[in-house]
Amino acid sequence: MPYQPKFKGRLLPFILLFPTLLILVVFLYYPVIQTFRLSLYRTAFLGMRRTFVGLENFVSLMQDPDYWHTVKVTLIITTAIVIGGLAISLAIAMLANQKIRGASIYRILLIWPYALSPAVAGVIFLFLFAPGYGALNYIISLVIGRELNWLGDPNLAILLIILTSIWKNLGYNIVFYLAGLQNLNTEVLEAAEIDGAGPWRRFWSVTFALLSPITFFLLITNITYSFFDIFGTIDIVTKGGPMDATTVMIYRLYRDAFEYYKSGLAAAQSIILFGLVVVLTLIQFRTSGRYVHYGG
Fold first, then answer.
1. Which of 65, 124, 165, 214 is disulfide-compatible with 180, CB 3.0–4.6 A?
2. Residue-wise pLDDT tens digits, 132-164
3. Are 70 and 249 in contact (CB under 8 A)?
4. Domain extents in the chain
5. Terminus-to-terminus CA distance in the chain, angstroms?
6. Across the chain, which distance is largest between two alpha carbons, in Å?
7. Who's near 270: CB < 8 A, 6+ residues apart?
8. Contact 238, 161 (CB under 8 A)
């Protein structure tokens, strides 16, 4: 029986795709093109006057020690969120995967923080750790004998942002790891146990290896989350301080664009940020992707 096309007219598929393509052009492709174009200009207040400067915005950023400090802070926070978040999520998922009474209730309670926005998560942790009235900060002061200034100490401020961001994204990671654990090939685990493999050996060589596709996916999504979605948390908790200790690339971009009205410089930063995420993602596909095993 010859193949019968589903669309009798050649124009019908394009007519059906037109609304989607229109939205993509207006809200995605056009802004991207305008960002690249704007990065080549120096703009006056509110963009009333533009002066073409070529690559001067990029050169200015590359020669700015403060910007390199921002990049360093971004990479430190991102690394801690990704590695710490995935490790804690996998550990919790393995505990939640145990056959105990009320397991479904525990799983729901573990997942619900993901429903909160980064800003709301920031408010919660701000009330928990704020000097003077933070509940957890008060408990810590009873244990160590002094109150910690989480918002005034640069190192503690970075740690607070990392803890908040990890907690906010735990539910997302746990969902995927829990689904992966529930669909593992139990025969492989039983065979490893019969062969005399200990608990750690079975976890690392069997369980973690079988979860490698999920881990690889979560690695990419957590990197993206760490670069972009922690903006709300930082804006609520630390405002980039103290002493720019928590000013990441996305937050500096926002301040240059909407507080200092340096639109051209902010556009250049957005391109650098986009390029950095693309490079890191490609590196992940070239390196970590080799250790991803599908099937089995």
1. 214
2. 888 888 898 888 988 889 999 999 999 999 999
3. yes
4. 64-291
5. 38
6. 83
7. 35, 39, 253
8. yes
User: What is the DSSP annotation of 137-166?
Assistant: HHHHHHHHSS---TTTSHHHHHHHHHHHHH
| Pairwise CA distance, residues 177 & 183, whole Å | 10
State residue 51 phi and psi, 5-degree precision: -125, 125
User: What sign does the dihedral 78-82-87-88 (CA atoms) show?
Assistant: positive
- Cα-Cα-Cα-Cα dihedral of 244, 249, 254, 256, to 10°? 70
Which residues have a Cβ under 8 Å from the Cβ of 180 and sit 6 or more positions away? 210, 211, 214
* Closest to 206 (Cα-Cα) out of 191, 189, 190, 187: 189
Can you read off the two tokens belonging to residue 219?
Answer: 């690695």
What is the radius of gyration, based on Cα positions, of the chain?
24
Block residue for tokens 């709300």: 232
Q: Rounded to the nearest 5 degrees, what angle is found at the Cα of 205, between the Cα atoms of 184 and 99?
A: 40
* CA distance linking residue 88 with residue 98, whole number of Å: 16
The pTM (predicted TM-score) of the whole model is: 0.87
Above 70 in pLDDT, residue 2?
Answer: no
Task: Give CATH for domain 64-291.
Answer: 1.10.3720.10
pLDDT the model gives residue 181: 87
- Alpha helices (H) along the chain: 11-24, 30-38, 56-62, 65-96, 103-111, 118-129, 135-144, 154-182, 186-194, 199-202, 208-210, 212-224, 231-237, 249-258, 263-286
